[in-house]
C-alpha cells in the first residue's frame, strides 16, 4: 500500500481536533470528511489526497469513543495512520469498522519520515519503505486478533475460531 | 484474579483469565445515545446492504437509550436524530428509552446509576467513552464505537483483550475542601493522558472506602482521560444501599482475590491532597489551584456526567449560598431526578439567588455541542472532563477543569480560586 505522508509532529492528537464535537450530530460520512482535522489544521481538507497517510506521535486519537474520528479521516482518503502509539478506542474503531490501518511505528520512522514523503506499507512483512528517501523501517506487528479482523475486512466479517 | 479478571472470566465462560488473553465476553447491558444511536443505525444500514440480518436485536430488555448530547434540539439535524432514535427503539422493542420532555431523562452515564441500570459484576458497554463511569458500581464498564456497539446489539458479545490493572490506593480521607475530582486530576497529572491506555484503573484504600458512591463515579468517569479501558471500585454495602434505594434487586457483591495481581500499585495520602485544576489544553496539565495563573474568567460551567451529580450541586451550593456570581455561571443538573432533588432541597433557589442560570440536563457545552459554547478567546472554568482545543466551543477558547467547589468559588471571584481563600 503506497501513499504520501501528512505529518503532524506532536503527541496526543485528540478526537476533539480530529472531528470537533459540534459535528457529532452528522452521520453523512462525506460531510464529516469536510471537517476532518479542523481543530488542528484547517487546510487538511484541501490538501489531503486519496491514499494519503497521516504520521504522528504518541497517543493518537485520545479522547472520545466517537467513530466519527476514523470515519472522517477514512472518507477524506486517509488509508493509514502511522503513530508512535494509539489511544485504545480509536485503534479498535479503526480496525473493527475497517476504516483505516493504525500502524504503530518506532522513533526511527517517526523522526526520519517527512511531510510529503512517499512510503510503501507492507503489513505482511511488517515493513515501511520510504520511497522518497530510500530507507526502510520496521513496524509493530498486529496482535493476532487485530491481524485476523483486518484480514477479514472488519469485525462483522470476522469469524471467531 | 482481581475483580476485572473475575468478571471477564465469568462473562467468557472460563475458569480464569489473565492479562493479554483475548476473549469474547457476553455482555449484560448495553447503551446508546443520540450520537452513537444514529451511528449504529448507519452501521445497520450498511450491514443490510451486505446481506447481514439486522431484523432482531440480541435482547431489547438489556439495552437502553439516552437522549443527552444534542437535547433540546437546537436545529433540525439534531431533531431528526431524535426522531431516528425513537423509530429505532420502537421498531426493535426497546422499552428503556429515556426521552427528553417525558419525565426522567439525562446524561447516559448519570442514568446508569440514578436508575440502577447496571449492577456489580456485570459487563456493561456503551457507545460513549465515559461509559467507564459506571465501573464505580463494581461493573466492568467500557466505552466502544458504533461498529462495536452494533455488534453487541445484534449478538450480545464483543471481543476484549483482558487488561492489566493499575491499582490506585488512597490512604485516608480527602480533606473537606478536596473532592474526588481533585484526586482523579492528581492521578491524570501524574500518569498522563496515556498512562492508563489499554488498562484498568482500579481505586481502593481507606480513602476510597470512605467515599460516597457518587464520588467514586467521578473517579471512574475520568479514567477515560487517562486512556483506560475501564475504571472500577470493588463494590461494598454503600453500593448495595445506593442501588437498592433506586429499585435494584438481586445484587451480589464481587471482589478480587486476596492474592490478586496488579501491574502496578500507586499509593496516595489523602491528607496531602489539594484543590487542583487542569489547565488548557489537556487534562494532564494539572496544577494546584493556588498556583494557577491569574486569568480573568468569562464563565463557570457546572454540568456533565463528571460534575453535575447531586453531590456536585450540593458542593457548589455550599459555596454559592449567600454569595453572588461575578461571571456568567450555568448549572445543568445531570438528570431530571437530580434536578428534582436539587429543587426539593433548596439548591436551585440558592443558585438563582446567586445569579446562576439553570439549564436542563444535557451534554451541551461540555462537548461544544450547543447551549452555552465558548466564543473565541473566552476562558471557562468547568466541572467537566476534557479541555482539548475547541472542546467547549471555539478552537481558541480555553477551559480549566476543576471540582464543583473550585468552579463555584471561581464564579464568585471571576478568578481561579481555592474555596479556602474565599472571603
Quote the distance from N terminus to C terminus of chain A.
28 Å
Biggest β-sheet of chain A: count, sense, barrel? 7 strands, mixed
User: Which architecture name of chain A does CATH use?
Assistant: Alpha-Beta Barrel
- Specify the overall morphology of chain A: globular
User: For this entry, what is the oligomeric state of its chains?
Assistant: heterodimer
Mean of the pLDDT scores of chain A?
96
Lateral strand order in the biggest sheet of chain B: 4-3-2-5-6
The helix-and-strand class of chain B reads alpha/beta
**Total helical elements of chain B:** 14
Portion in beta strands of chain B? 15-25%
Order of helices and strands of chain A: EHHHEHEHEHEEEH
Total helical segments of chain A = 7
Helix content range of the residues of chain A, please?
A: 25-40%
Poorly predicted ranges of chain A = none
CATH homologous superfamily label of chain A = Aconitase, domain 4
Q: How do the helices and strands line up, and which of them pair or pack?
A:
The complex is a heterodimer of chains A (161) and B (423).
Chain A: E1 2-8, H1 15-18, H2 29-33, H3 44-47, E2 53-56, H4 68-74, E3 80-83, H5 88-96, E4 101-104, H6 107-112, E5 118-122, E6 127-130, E7 135-138, H7 144-152
Parallel strand pairs in A: 1-2, 2-3, 3-4
Antiparallel strand pairs in A: 1-5, 5-6, 6-7
Chain B: H1 3-11, E1 22-26, E2 29-32, H2 36-49, E3 63-66, H3 76-92, E4 96-98, H4 108-114, E5 123-126, E6 140-143, H5 146-155, E7 157-161, E8 165-171, H6 180-191, E9 200-204, H7 206-209, H8 213-221, E10 230-233, H9 237-244, E11 264-269, E12 276-278, E13 286-288, E14 299-302, H10 304-307, H11 310-320, E15 328-331, H12 336-344, H13 347-354, E16 357-358, E17 379-382, E18 398-401, H14 404-413
Helix pairs in contact in B: 2-5, 6-8, 11-13, 11-14
Amino acid at each position: 500500500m503506497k501513499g504520501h505522508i501528512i505529518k503532524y509532529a506532536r503527541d496526543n492528537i485528540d478526537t476533539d481536533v480530529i472531528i470537533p464535537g459540534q459535528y457529532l450530530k452528522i452521520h453523512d460520512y462525506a460531510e464529516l470528511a469536510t471537517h476532518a482535522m479542523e481543530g488542528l489544521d484547517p487546510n487538511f481538507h484541501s490538501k489531503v489526497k486519496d491514499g494519503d497517510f497521516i504520521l504522528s506521535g504518541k497517543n493518537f486519537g485520545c479522547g472520545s469513543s466517537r467513530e466519527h474520528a476514523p470515519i472522517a479521516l477514512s472518507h477524506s482518503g486517509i488509508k493509514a495512520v502511522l503513530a508512535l502509539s494509539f489511544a485504545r478506542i480509536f485503534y479498535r474503531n479503526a480496525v473493527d469498522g475497517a476504516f483505516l490501518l493504525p500502524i504503530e511505528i518506532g522513533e526511527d520512522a517517526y523522526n526520519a519520515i517527512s511531510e510529503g514523503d512517499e512510503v510503501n506499507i507492507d503489513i505482511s512483512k511488517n515493513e515501511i519503505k520510504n520511497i522518497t528517501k530510500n530507507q526502510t523501517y520496521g513496524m509493530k506487528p498486529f496482535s493476532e486478533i487485530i491481524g485476523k479482523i483486518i484480514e477479514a475486512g472488519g469485525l462483522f466479517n470476522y469469524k471467531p475460531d | 484474579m482481581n475483580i476485572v479478571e473475575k468478571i471477564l472470566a465469568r462473562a467468557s465462560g472460563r475458569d480464569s483469565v489473565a492479562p493479554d488473553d483475548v476473549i469474547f465476553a457476553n455482555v449484560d447491558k448495553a447503551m446508546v445515545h443520540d450520537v452513537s444511536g444514529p451511528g449504529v443505525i448507519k452501521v445497520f444500514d450498511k450491514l443490510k446492504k451486505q446481506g447481514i440480518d439486522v431484523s432482531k436485536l440480541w435482547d431489547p430488555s438489556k439495552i437502553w437509550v439516552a437522549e443527552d448530547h444534542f437535547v433540546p434540539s437546537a436545529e433540525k439535524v439534531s431533531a431528526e436524530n431524535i426522531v431516528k432514535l425513537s423509530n429505532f427503539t420502537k421498531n426493535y422493542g426497546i422499552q428503556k428509552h429515556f426521552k427528553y420532555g417525558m419525565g426522567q431523562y439525562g446524561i447516559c452515564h448519570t442514568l446508569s446509576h440514578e436508575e440502577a441500570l447496571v449492577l456489580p459484576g456485570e459487563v456493561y458497554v456503551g457507545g460513549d467513552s465515559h461509559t467507564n463511569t459506571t465501573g464505580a458500581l463494581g461493573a466492568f464498564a467500557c466505552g466502544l464505537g458504533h461498529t462495536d456497539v452494533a455488534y453487541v446489539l445484534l449478538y450480545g458479545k464483543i471481543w476484549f483483550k483482558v487488561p492489566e490493572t493499575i491499582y490506585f490506593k488512597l490512604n485516608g480521607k480527602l480533606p473537606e475542601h478536596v473532592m474526588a475530582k481533585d484526586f482523579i486530576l492528581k492521578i491524570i497529572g501524574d500518569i498522563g493522558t496515556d498512562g492508563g491506555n489499554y488498562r484498568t484503573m482500579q481505586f481502593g484504600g481507606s480513602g476510597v472506602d470512605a467515599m460516597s458512591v457518587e464520588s467514586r463515579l467521578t473517579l471512574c468517569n475520568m479514567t477515560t482521560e487517562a486512556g483506560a479501558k475501564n475504571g472500577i471500585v470493588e463494590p461494598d454495602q454503600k453500593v448495595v444501599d445506593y442501588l437498592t434505594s433506586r429499585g435494584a434487586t438481586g445484587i451480589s457483591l464481587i471482589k478480587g482475590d486476596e492474592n490478586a495481581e496488579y501491574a502496578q500499585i500507586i499509593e496516595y495520602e489523602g491528607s496531602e491532597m489539594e484543590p487542583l485544576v487542569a489547565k488548557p489544553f489537556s487534562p494532564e496539565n494539572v496544577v494546584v489551584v493556588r498556583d494557577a495563573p491569574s486569568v480573568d474568567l468569562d464563565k463557570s460551567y457546572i454540568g456533565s456526567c463528571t460534575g453535575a451529580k447531586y453531590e456536585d450541586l450540593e458542593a457548589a451550593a455550599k459555596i454559592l449560598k449567600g454569595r453572588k456570581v461575578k461571571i456568567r455561571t450555568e448549572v445543568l443538573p445531570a438528570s431530571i431526578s437530580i434536578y428534582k432533588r436539587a429543587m426539593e432541597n433548596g439548591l436551585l433557589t440558592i443558585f438563582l439567588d446567586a445569579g446562576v442560570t439553570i439549564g436542563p440536563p444535557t451534554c451541551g457545552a461540555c462537548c461544544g455541542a450547543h447551549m452555552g459554547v465558548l466564543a473565541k478567546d473566552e476562558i471557562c472554568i468547568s466541572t467537566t472532563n476534557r479541555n482539548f482545543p475547541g472542546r467547549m466551543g471555539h478552537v481558541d477558547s480555553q477551559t480549566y477543569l476543576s471540582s464543583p467547589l473550585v468552579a463555584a468559588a471561581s464564579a464568585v471571584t471571576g478568578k481561579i480560586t481555592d474555596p479556602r481563600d474565599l472571603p
